[in-house]
Amino acid sequence: MRIVPFLFTALILIAPNVARAAPSQTVVLAGGCFWGMEGVFESLKGVQSAVSGYAGGSAQTAHYEIVSTGMTGHAESVRVTFDPSQISFSQILQVYFFVAHDPTELNFQGPDEGTQYRSEIFYTTDEQRAESLDEIKRLDAQHAFPKPIVTQVAPLRGFYPAEAYHQHFMQKNMDNPYIVENDVPKLEALHAKFPQLVKR
C-alpha cells in the first residue's frame, strides 16, 4: 500500500528533468565550398555537429566528381545540428549571412563557380522557413549588403554526406593554400563579429 505513493513521488521528481531536455534541431545550409562553411559552423557553441555533404539532388548523383559538373541539382552543403537552448536559429542565420558566405553572389562564391556553389537554406521546419524568409526580407530592406540577397529557401528533401576526406577538411588542413586564402578569413570574421558564439 505504501509503494504506490513512493513511486508517484519518484515520478514527480524525475519528470521535470526529462521535460527540460530540448530536442536538437537540424538545418542544411549551402553557400559555396563546404570546407569553409563546415569550419565556421563547427566552431559555434551549441552546434553539436556540422557535416559536409550534398543537398538538392538525388542519392544516385551525390558524389563529388558528379556534383562538380554542376549538372546534378545538388549544392555543396553543410548539415548543422544544434541545441536551440544554447544557440538560436536566428543566431545561426546571422553567422550564415554575415560570416559563412556572401549571400548576394548568384551561383558562385569567391573562386568557385556553378550552381553547386549557390546560396540556399534547406529548412526542416515551417518555423525555419518563415524565419529565413523574414530575415532575408529584413536584411534587404535595411540594405545590409551592397546588392540584393539571392539566397534560395527550400524544404530539405534529402542530405547525403560527402566523402570522408571532405569531413573537417578545414580543421585538418589549415595550411592548405585554398583554406588560407578563402576560409581562414571567415574564422577571423567569426571571432571579430560574434565572439560570444565561438567555442572556447
Q: What descriptive keywords fit this protein?
A:
single chain; 200 residues; alpha+beta; Peptide Methionine Sulfoxide Reductase, Chain A; two-stranded antiparallel sheet; 8 strands; disordered N terminus
In short:
The protein is of the alpha+beta class and 200 residues long. Helix content is 40%, strand content 20%.
Structure description:
The chain has 200 residues and is an alpha+beta fold. It has one domain (22-187): 2-Layer Sandwich (Peptide Methionine Sulfoxide Reductase, Chain A). It is 40% helix and 20% strand. It contains seven helices and eight strands. It has helices at 3-20, 34-41, 64-67, 89-100, 126-141, 169-172, 177-193; strands at residues 25-31, 47-55, 75-82, 108-109, 112-113, 119-123, 152-155, 159-161. The strands form two sheets. A six-stranded mixed sheet has the order 7-6-1-3-2-8, covered by helices on one side. A two-stranded antiparallel ribbon has the order 4-5. Helix 2 crosses helix 4 (89-100) and helix 2 runs parallel beside helix 7. It is globular. The model is unreliable at 1-19 (pLDDT under 50).
CATH topology: Peptide Methionine Sulfoxide Reductase, Chain A
Q: How far do the termini sit from each other? A: 53 Å
Specify Rg, calculated over alpha carbons.
20 Å
Q: The biggest beta sheet, please? A: 6 strands, mixed
State the strand order across the main sheet: 7-6-1-3-2-8
Query: So what's the CATH class?
Result: Alpha Beta
Percent in helix: 25-40%
Q: What is the overall pLDDT average?
A: 92
Question: Could you outline the blueprint of secondary structure elements for this entry?
Answer:
Elements: H1 3-20, E1 25-31, H2 34-41, E2 47-55, H3 64-67, E3 75-82, H4 89-100, E4 108-109, E5 112-113, E6 119-123, H5 126-141, E7 152-155, E8 159-161, H6 169-172, H7 177-193
Parallel strand pairs: 6-7
Antiparallel strand pairs: 1-3, 1-6, 2-3, 2-8, 4-5
Helix pairs in contact: 2-4, 2-7
